[in-house]
Structures are given as C-alpha cells and as structure tokens.
Recover the amino acids of this structure.
C-alpha cells in the first residue's frame, strides 16, 4: 500500500517536529577502491565501506516551538533520538541516534519564515513495524 507523505513525520526525542512541511531520510554507502596494478586499464574494483545517513526536516518557524529545542541540542552537541514514521499500525518506522549537523532559517519576502534541520546518524538505523 502506498503511504501518504502527509502522515510521515520526524520525531525528535519522541516529539513530532511542529509545523513540518517536508522530511527526507537518506542512506549512503562508501565504496573503497581496490584497483591495483594487475587490473589497470580494465574495470575498477571496489568493496563496500562504511555506511552513513541523514534525516532532514523542513518546517514553518513559530516562536517557542520545535526550533528552540532543536537549536539547544545543536548548540550543546546533544544526541537526538529520531523516529521517521507515520505511526500507523502495520507501517514501518526507522529509529536512529543522531547529532544535529546543520540548521538553516529562511525568511523570503511575502512568504513564511521556515527552517531546515539536518540530523546525521551516529548509529545503525533500526527498522521496525509500528
């Protein structure tokens, strides 16, 4: 069954990020080149390396809401437990420990103030059924 993007939220330390408009989870795998003199001029050879990932959330800014606690976690280098989930029974959710590595606030003319926060994974993500 196709999931509705409207239901998918980022929860930081158990609390949904307020006024979220978009969220993304990214998984990346490094590749270690193992090309050597015996295979020069042929296809490169490689082996899997470390994996990493990020969770990004975009939200409308409102004084006194999620931005403040997220900024405090960023400022104090506090680990933030993330859930990326619809919280609908039977759907999958991803849980992972993170650090906030980027925050950006945007204030365009004639539009809402918004912000983006990026969480970098510090552990293996856990996929489980809600």
């Amino acid at each position: 069954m196709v999931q509705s993007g409207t239901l998918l939220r980022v929860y930081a330390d158990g609390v949904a990020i307020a006024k979220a408009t978009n969220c993304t989870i990214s998984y990346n795998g490094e590749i270690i080149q193992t090309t050597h003199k015996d295979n020069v001029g042929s296809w490169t050879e490689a082996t899997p390396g470390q994996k990493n990932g990020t969770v990004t959330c975009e939200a409308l800014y409102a004084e006194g809401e999620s931005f403040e606690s997220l900024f405090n976690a960023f400022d104090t280098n506090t680990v933030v437990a993330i859930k990326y989930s619809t919280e609908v029974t039977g759907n999958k959710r991803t849980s992972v420990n993170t650090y906030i590595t980027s925050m950006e606030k945007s204030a365009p003319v004639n539009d809402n103030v918004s912000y983006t926060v990026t969480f970098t994974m510090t552990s293996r993500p856990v996929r489980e059924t809600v």
